[in-house]
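Lab notes, practical 5.
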Amino acid sequence: MKALLLMGCALLMVSVRSTAQFTSSGSIEYLKTTNVRLGMQLEMDDDEDSEFMKEYIKKLPKNKTVFFKMDFDKKKSTYFYDKDGPEKIPMWGGKDPAGENIVLKNFTDKTIAAQKEVYDNTYIVKDSLPKYQWKILDEMRPIAGYNCRKATTVIDDTVVVVAYYTEQIMVSGGPESFGGLPGMILGLAIPRLYTTWFATKVSNVQLHENEVKKIGKGKEINNEQLFKVLQPRLKEWGKYGTNILWKIRI
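Output from the prediction step:
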């Protein structure tokens, strides 16, 4: 039985490899999923009069899904909001902050530019590519036909990030600001934010220029400046404000 199990695992690994092509350009579709019920429950402050909120949370769908796309090659990648999933979830104050980002990474000069809408303001955040301290592990899993290796890192000293990347896509990129691994990130999880990003489709054909969203106009700022602007305001909102700040900064 053990021999059969090992043989089955080996065949699965071969099958995953055979369905995927080595590539350095193309497009990826990501599904972002957030457990909104759990998130709102855990973000409520202990001293908050929460009877109304508890009833409100019970009526929400468990998850909120959003679709993103990425166009990439060896020189750059453009990651952008595509459409909402089918769930109807009213957000306090309108759109989810930084929920429809456009992120342009330039791998040649190692810079990043991101358009982020935060309530009534649109920020164009320009900075150098983040340098995440990844720990690469032995665990593997298939995602969108690619065999992916697990890696972990920590942001802001306490927020754990789990990534799954494939060396068969020879571009060191990923969703939002994440990258810096020996291949493309096809799976990402941030448990503290109750959110995952997983590729649902990978193509070795790049998107047409007209399909790729462009960064528009907004207040130009870097990451440190953005934190200084938003942190004092969101600090007043307790745990909810802290999580919003992390969502904006990723």
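Observations recorded by the TA: Residues 2-19 form the longest helix (18 residues). Helices lie at 2-19, 36-43, 51-58, 223-235, 238-249.
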